[in-house]
Specification:
- This protein has a 5-stranded mixed beta sheet.
- By secondary structure, the protein is an alpha+beta fold.
- It has a single domain, classed as GTP cyclohydrolase I, C-terminal domain/NADPH-dependent 7-cyano-7-deazaguanine reductase, N-terminal domain (GTP Cyclohydrolase I, domain 2).
- It has 4 helices and 5 strands, in the order E-H-E-H-H-E-H-E-E.
- Helix 3 runs antiparallel to helix 4.
- Strand 4 and strand 5 form a beta hairpin.
- The protein is elongated, with a radius of gyration of 16 Å.
- The longest helix is centred in the middle third of the chain and has 13 residues.
- The chain starts with 6 loop residues before the first strand and ends with a strand.
């Protein structure tokens, strides 16, 4: 990820949620922890110039949408969950770039977690 002039970077760090994630029967019946990290870049010049929330990216709204979608969802694959979260972030037309990383703690023996990272850029 490179930073272009005029882009602000917002990071949502370690958003800890519980959801149904996995392919085996136990995973489908019991919610598990996931940890979500999101990086968002948007053109910040208007927000700086106007010093007004209406000209800034509302990351609180994005965060609430992620929480609702993940906690109310059921996912077989981390790839699918990451794709859906990324699509939610990219719905905001102010977003120029977004990266989503989702960790599934204790998914493998002897590993802290397994994670997947997806990103998208608006042309």
């Amino acid at each position: 990820m490179t930073t272009e002039p005029g882009l602000a970077t917002i990071k949502i760090k370690n958003l800890r949620l519980r959801t149904f994630i996995g392919i085996n029967d136990e995973e489908k019946q019991k919610q598990q922890d996931v940890i979500i990290n999101v990086v968002i870049q948007y053109r910040v010049r208007s927000a700086i110039t106007h010093n007004d929330i209406d000209h800034a990216l509302n990351y609180r709204t994005i965060n609430k949408a992620i929480i609702s979608h993940v906690e109310n969802g059921r996912f077989l694959l981390l790839e699918r969950m990451a794709s859906e979260v990324l699509a939610l972030v990219m719905e905001d037309p102010m977003v120029a770039f977004a990266q989503v990383e989702i960790d599934k703690p204790h998914a493998l023996r002897f590993a802290d977690s397994v994670s997947i990272t997806l990103c998208d850029r608006r042309d």
